[in-house]
Amino acid sequence: MTNALTLSRLRMAVQVVMLVFTVYGGALMGHYLADKVTGSLPALSCAYDQQNAGYCVLIPMQHQLHHRVGESIVRAQQFSVDYIIPFGFTMLTFLAFFFVLNKAFCGWICPLGTVQEFVYKLGRKLKLGIRRFTQDSVGRVRPVKWAVLILMVLVLPLAAGLGYTSYVTGDAYCQVCPSRVVTTLMTADPKQIAVNTADTTAFAFSAARSAIFGFVLILALGMRQPFCRVCPMLALHALFRRIVPLRLAKKQSGDQCGKCKACYQACPMDIHEVAFEFGSKAFHADCTMCGRCVEFCPDDGMLALKLGPVALFQSSSAYMKRRAKIDKPDGAPCKPKSKSAANPAPAE
């Protein structure tokens, strides 16, 4: 029964569809209509990809800070509601989309996340070693995404608008985002991987972009979702995850949970809290709601993806046994049983 439908297979199907949509959708519906699909998609759908069907919220957010908020502070007499409203609507649009799927935009829709999963699967096919963060070391990585959000998405674009930094920093995060390279290369556009020699700042950012892109691909061969751990979009999602009805839920339990650690082993983000915490504490800021922890939990109803009070998908011992025949919690494929093992000879 290895061909049975599972949550992971359903998620991968959604990821593939959304990868095609976010990379090539503009070519199907026309660039003008694609621009109207959304200007604030809460996933890394790159604005530099001329064929995509929607832009992520980070590019309009940076541009609003650069061209409206920052420049309007310089021209204090023009700093009025007229400049704040566009930025406010950018955030409201983000929240409207975010309210629908919460952090599942990271785990199910983000094209960069999908590509990282493909590369990780390739690493398993090549039988490369698996690297993951321990319970102690993961804590040193988690603050990075907040630093990237504050510095690259908020501070530098605003500083560019105020005239303190180069115009290149007007979309500082997008200058180094690997999604900019991944999705444009998929449309046969190699320009974003080239090093810009226009000036020192442009050279530094473009060189960093290419280096980060290569580093992420290499890491993804042996580590699940390496860039997601430092992604500012994940941090932005984390700010609002508690106000959205779709969420990861875990029952309050005594001693029956936290022993097998299958949910932690299955988590692509190495979130140990999902194994040891209960209630809302198990829904960590790094969670992308991919659902793998729910799939591999052997306790009926212990973990669930819920929409308000309704469980859309919950853990089940029977489901876990079927699921474990496809791959291991860490994503390594299970070895198929030999015919002799599956059908032992009858005793004489």
Describe it.
The protein is mainly alpha-helical. It folds into two domains: 7-235, no CATH class; 246-323. The chain is built from 17 helices and three strands. The chain has helices at 7-29, 31-37, 58-74, 81-101, 104-109, 111-125, 138-141, 143-162, 172-176, 178-186, 200-220, 232-240, 262-266, 273-276, 292-296, 317-323, 339-342; strands at 246-250, 303-307, 310-314. The protein has a three-stranded antiparallel β-sheet. Helix 1 crosses helix 2 and helix 10 crosses helix 11. The protein is globular. The relative contact order is 0.13. The mean pLDDT is 86.
Short key terms for the protein model shown above:
3 strands, 2 domains, 348 residues, mainly alpha, 17 helices
The helix/strand order is: HHHHHHHHHHHHEHHHEEHH
Gap from first CA to last CA: 29 Å
By secondary-structure content and strand pairing, the structural class works out as: mainly alpha
Percent of residues in β-strands? under 5%
- Largest sheet descriptor: 3 strands, antiparallel
Summarize the amount of helix as a percent range. Answer: 40-55%
Count every helix, treating DSSP H or I runs of 4 or more residues as helices: 17
**Largest beta sheet: strand ordering:** 1-2-3
Cα gyration radius (Å): 22 Å
Number of domains: 2
Report the count of strand segments. 3
Shape: globular
Oligomer: single chain
Low-confidence stretches: none
Mean pLDDT: 86
